[in-house]
Design a protein that fits this description.
The structure is a single chain. By secondary structure, this protein is of the alpha+beta class. The protein folds into 2 domains: 11-73; 83-170, no CATH class. Helix content is 36%, strand content 27%. It contains 5 helices and 9 strands. The strands form 2 sheets. It has a 6-stranded mixed β-sheet with strand order 1-5-9-8-7-6, with helices on both faces. Strand 8 and strand 9 form a beta hairpin.
Amino acid sequence: MKKVTKTEEINEVPKKILITLKNGQNIATKWFEDNEKEFISSEMTAKENQEYELILRQKHIDKSEVENWRIIKKRSAENIYVTKHGYKRLRERNGWNKKTADRMLIKIYNDGIDLKEISNTCKEWAMEVGRQHSDSDVYKIYGDKVYVFKYTTLITTLFIPANIIKKIKKG
């Protein structure tokens, strides 16, 4: 696994919108910067909505022709990304501010115990926890917590039960 070197909030990366029309055609916006934290709906920031509306106008497409759309975020393999929920859990469960969280996440991702390195009982517990929270595929154990990532994006932080911690320490 490649070493990561910095953290970034997931909403602060370049984005583009990919729109699939009912006729099967795909169109996309150009990459754009969007550092807005406020969402105008449950799905889009104001900037994302602006880019979505612009491409529809430019291509003379009516919204009724749209089958679906999604936001694509440009990521770097050297970065750890953190969702708002991820930062919230780090603050609640570790007491870390953003600067400390950014520094520690690099250490956790690079040096934390990987799920593959622990016993089957602990592995089953972590996999069950992961299924409850997301379809994550990277679990890093550090101290008394498991950090749940989807690729290099922190999804959440969870306490590990004392009986599981003992089993991990025993090896």
